[in-house]
Amino acid sequence: MEKNAVWYTNGKGNNVKVLVCKDYDTLSKKAAGILAGIVNVKPNAILGLATGSSPVGTYKELIKLNQEGLLDFSAVRTYNLDEYYPLDPSNDQSYHYFMNDNLFDHVNIDKNNVHVPDGNAPDMNKACESYEAMLNEVGGVDIQVLGIGGNGHIGFNEPTDTFVGPTHVVELTESTIKANSRFFEKIEDVPTKAISMGIASIMKAKKILLVANGTGKADAIAKTLEGPITPWVPASILQLHPDVTIIVDEAAASGLKEYKPAE
Ligand code: F6R
């Protein structure tokens, strides 16, 4: 086993595999390796993608592999988790823009195969329904990339008293608005709503790949893996998914008590 990345297990035989990497760079290379492996085996793979800082390094590695001729995106289809509402896709704060900037513009993907929830739809509820219908039509993505909020959110599924199943409209919490204001000029510019895949939409993925780095994620990662399954920690639902890989750096793994290096 390489020293810069060690698999962890809680020894209880559950299906969540945890790979602890010494740093963000290693984490990004490992995550990209998993995604590239899937695309190489299945060139028309369906990828569920996330925005935010966590997967940026992973996307950089994918771009590198593509530019080196080791990874072909020409038949890949993608579905993103979420989008702010209301926000035009051309707005440089939109998740649509983010994905173009951090991945799609730099690889040979066919933009007709790219799907991001419509942050500009005249009817939000219809936009949610049609996004969910598209996900159902493809039978769930082959692999869903996730980040995690410091409060345990996945997509924009915020902590609350119930899990919401399908793609839906979300009122963003104060903590998420504050966390995301770093990308905007001022906090008032952060949209207060979003369209997000729901918990059921995410759980339909055949595989889940969650990446997290930094001490700000340590508590959320510990609760996700070792706490009770509760909508107050939305990511805790992943304990019920049959195929989850969580790739973290040492800082994000620092709250884990039950997980130990695998023999
Ligand atoms: C992004 C998303 C969010 C982020 C989460 C972590 O599409 O759905 O759940 O993954 O907020 O964000 P970062 O990676 O910026 O810490």
**Distance between the amino and carboxyl termini:** 10 Å
Q: Give the helix proportion (percent range).
A: 25-40%
Distinct compounds present: fructose -6-phosphate
Q: Shape, please?
A: globular
> How big is the Rg?
17 Å
Describe this structure in words.
The chain has eight helices and twelve strands. The protein has 263 residues and is α/β, with parallel strands linked by helices. The strands form two sheets. A nine-stranded mixed β-sheet has the order 6-4-3-7-10-11-2-1-12. The protein has a three-stranded antiparallel β-sheet with strand order 5-9-8, with helices on one face. Strand 10, helix 7 and strand 11 form a beta-alpha-beta unit. Helix 1 (24-41) packs across helix 2. The radius of gyration is 17 Å and the shape is globular. The structure holds fructose -6-phosphate. Fructose -6-phosphate binds at residues 50-54, 81-82, 147-149, 153-156.
Index terms:
single chain, alpha/beta, nine-stranded mixed β-sheet, 8 helices, 12 strands, 19% strand, binds fructose -6-phosphate
Question: Would you summarize the structure shown here?
Answer:
It contains 8 helices and 12 strands. The chain is of the alpha/beta class.
